[in-house]
Design brief:
By secondary structure, this protein is mainly alpha-helical. It has one domain (4-125): Four Helix Bundle (Hemerythrin (Met), subunit A) (Up-down Bundle), CATH 1.20.120.330. It is 76% helix and 0% strand. Helix 1 (4-28) packs antiparallel against helix 2. The protein is globular and about 40 Å long.
Length: 127
Amino acid sequence: MINDTTAAADAAFTDAWDQYNSAIERFEAGDVRDACGKAWNATRGATRAAALAHGEDPQNTNHISSWIRRMGRQEAEFAALPLMYSARAQFLHQQACYDGHIDDPDIPDLIYETADYIRQAQLLASI
Protein backbone atom coordinates (compact mmCIF):
# COMPACT_ATOMS: atom_id res chain seq x y z
CA MET A 1 0.00 0.00 0.00
CA ILE A 2 1.28 3.43 -0.90
CA ASN A 3 1.26 5.86 2.00
CA ASP A 4 0.57 9.58 1.78
CA THR A 5 4.27 10.44 1.92
CA THR A 6 5.08 8.17 -1.02
CA ALA A 7 2.12 9.47 -3.01
CA ALA A 8 3.15 13.08 -2.38
CA ALA A 9 6.75 12.36 -3.38
CA ASP A 10 5.63 10.53 -6.53
CA ALA A 11 3.35 13.41 -7.50
CA ALA A 12 6.16 15.91 -6.91
CA PHE A 13 8.53 13.87 -9.08
CA THR A 14 5.90 13.69 -11.82
CA ASP A 15 5.58 17.46 -11.67
CA ALA A 16 9.38 17.84 -11.80
CA TRP A 17 9.53 15.71 -14.95
CA ASP A 18 6.67 17.72 -16.47
CA GLN A 19 8.56 20.94 -15.72
CA TYR A 20 11.71 19.47 -17.26
CA ASN A 21 9.89 18.42 -20.43
CA SER A 22 8.39 21.90 -20.69
CA ALA A 23 11.86 23.40 -20.22
CA ILE A 24 13.19 21.39 -23.16
CA GLU A 25 10.22 22.39 -25.33
CA ARG A 26 10.67 26.07 -24.48
CA PHE A 27 14.43 25.93 -25.01
CA GLU A 28 14.04 24.27 -28.40
CA ALA A 29 11.44 26.91 -29.31
CA GLY A 30 14.02 29.61 -28.53
CA ASP A 31 12.55 30.88 -25.25
CA VAL A 32 15.69 30.45 -23.16
CA ARG A 33 14.52 32.52 -20.19
CA ASP A 34 11.31 30.53 -19.77
CA ALA A 35 13.24 27.29 -20.26
CA CYS A 36 15.58 28.30 -17.45
CA GLY A 37 12.65 28.98 -15.16
CA LYS A 38 11.09 25.63 -15.90
CA ALA A 39 14.41 23.79 -15.46
CA TRP A 40 14.85 25.54 -12.11
CA ASN A 41 11.32 24.57 -11.08
CA ALA A 42 12.12 20.97 -12.04
CA THR A 43 15.30 21.05 -9.94
CA ARG A 44 13.59 22.57 -6.93
CA GLY A 45 10.60 20.25 -7.29
CA ALA A 46 12.74 17.12 -7.54
CA THR A 47 14.65 18.14 -4.44
CA ARG A 48 11.43 18.73 -2.53
CA ALA A 49 10.13 15.36 -3.78
CA ALA A 50 13.20 13.63 -2.36
CA ALA A 51 12.64 15.42 0.95
CA LEU A 52 9.00 14.32 0.95
CA ALA A 53 10.13 10.73 0.42
CA HIS A 54 12.21 11.13 3.58
CA GLY A 55 9.23 12.37 5.56
CA GLU A 56 10.12 16.06 5.43
CA ASP A 57 8.26 18.84 3.65
CA PRO A 58 10.44 21.91 3.17
CA GLN A 59 8.12 24.74 2.23
CA ASN A 60 10.46 27.26 0.65
CA THR A 61 13.68 27.45 -1.30
CA ASN A 62 15.80 28.17 1.79
CA HIS A 63 14.50 25.07 3.56
CA ILE A 64 14.91 22.96 0.43
CA SER A 65 18.50 24.22 0.06
CA SER A 66 19.25 23.37 3.69
CA TRP A 67 17.77 19.91 3.31
CA ILE A 68 19.83 19.02 0.21
CA ARG A 69 23.03 20.31 1.84
CA ARG A 70 22.33 18.18 4.92
CA MET A 71 21.65 15.10 2.80
CA GLY A 72 24.81 15.70 0.78
CA ARG A 73 26.81 15.58 4.01
CA GLN A 74 25.00 12.52 5.36
CA GLU A 75 24.99 10.42 2.19
CA ALA A 76 28.44 10.37 0.55
CA GLU A 77 27.14 9.06 -2.77
CA PHE A 78 25.00 12.20 -3.10
CA ALA A 79 27.68 14.70 -2.07
CA ALA A 80 27.57 16.38 -5.51
CA LEU A 81 23.83 17.13 -5.39
CA PRO A 82 24.11 20.29 -3.27
CA LEU A 83 26.61 21.74 -5.75
CA MET A 84 24.38 20.80 -8.68
CA TYR A 85 21.42 22.39 -6.92
CA SER A 86 23.38 25.56 -6.14
CA ALA A 87 24.62 25.92 -9.72
CA ARG A 88 21.07 25.70 -11.01
CA ALA A 89 19.86 28.19 -8.41
CA GLN A 90 22.58 30.63 -9.44
CA PHE A 91 22.48 30.31 -13.22
CA LEU A 92 18.96 29.19 -14.06
CA HIS A 93 17.02 30.95 -11.33
CA GLN A 94 18.94 34.06 -10.36
CA GLN A 95 20.92 35.03 -13.45
CA ALA A 96 18.55 33.87 -16.18
CA CYS A 97 15.07 34.22 -14.68
CA TYR A 98 15.52 37.24 -12.46
CA ASP A 99 18.35 39.09 -14.13
CA GLY A 100 17.65 38.09 -17.73
CA HIS A 101 21.22 37.01 -18.46
CA ILE A 102 20.52 34.14 -20.82
CA ASP A 103 23.74 34.23 -22.82
CA ASP A 104 25.88 32.19 -20.41
CA PRO A 105 27.38 29.30 -22.41
CA ASP A 106 26.66 26.84 -19.57
CA ILE A 107 22.91 27.40 -19.64
CA PRO A 108 22.04 24.83 -22.35
CA ASP A 109 23.95 22.11 -20.49
CA LEU A 110 22.36 23.09 -17.18
CA ILE A 111 18.92 22.83 -18.77
CA TYR A 112 19.51 19.45 -20.40
CA GLU A 113 21.40 18.03 -17.42
CA THR A 114 18.42 18.75 -15.19
CA ALA A 115 17.23 15.26 -16.17
CA ASP A 116 20.36 13.83 -14.52
CA TYR A 117 19.64 15.87 -11.41
CA ILE A 118 16.06 14.56 -11.22
CA ARG A 119 17.30 10.98 -11.57
CA GLN A 120 19.81 11.54 -8.76
CA ALA A 121 17.07 13.02 -6.58
CA GLN A 122 14.94 9.94 -7.29
CA LEU A 123 17.81 7.71 -6.18
CA LEU A 124 18.21 9.80 -3.03
CA ALA A 125 14.48 9.44 -2.39
CA SER A 126 14.78 5.65 -2.51
CA ILE A 127 17.31 5.30 0.33
